[in-house]
Amino acid sequence: MKQKKVVFGDTEIVEFCRATFDTNEIHNPVFMSKLGKRVIVPGMFALSQTVNLSSEFLKNKARTLKVLFNSLLSSDDFVLLCAFSPKDNYSEIRLSAINCKDTLTSKDEYTRLSVEESVLKSDHRGILHRLGVSSDQVEKFIQVTGIEDKDVAHFLFSVSYASQALFKSINHPQTEIEIEIDQAISKNSGISPFYHTLEILIPNPFPVFDPTGELDFFIHFEREKALKLYGAYMRCEHNGKLIFQAYYKLVGIADRIILRMAKDIKHHRRA
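Structure (tokenized):
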């Protein structure tokens, strides 16, 4: 088992959000402090550092990364990141990020890297959302996550940056389903979009590339339950090269509930 105890501080969270263009106010110390709340750690920040514990497995063996976001982490709390093979099953690595509970695990499911290749089927290539990437973004991402293997860092940056493309497609809807999502899950309605689960198909061989320049995200939404649950297929490419394919399950969570789950500043105590 590999373990690492970390503290996600406000400064590091802000830098991660700058690198990935994450403008969600729940990650903004100024906004949250006015509400008497601590900053919520971006899920992709915690995930990237946890996956990094098994960077060799990711790069040389893994074909699938299955992610479950079950709870929230707050800034300035100690978090134990773990990566281990469950019950001597060396075909997968279980990933955990534990504070009071494991934010990457539920009663029925857990986050893991696996040698088993997922099958993500979609008849639609999706609508292209092209995002520019600067060397400063990539360097800041590597600095704040502490990922030493640049190939792994570049891959995890593209996965983290994909959130920007996903939410951009919601904020600027083009299809009937995207318009429906925008109306049901938006800042205007007091409900924000969050992905509960994420399944990523990793190409073989592992993609080696420099994301500087542009990343292309092809996104296709599907309705699972009207006004409540949606799926999103994504294909990420760099200069025509496949970086990953993914399927997101998106749910809408009321902003008041998210803020209620955020820890109070006055109750701040490192554990």
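The beta strands are 2-7, 64-68, 78-84, 92-98, 111-114, 127-133, 191-201, 213-225, 229-238, 241-254. The radius of gyration is 18 Å.
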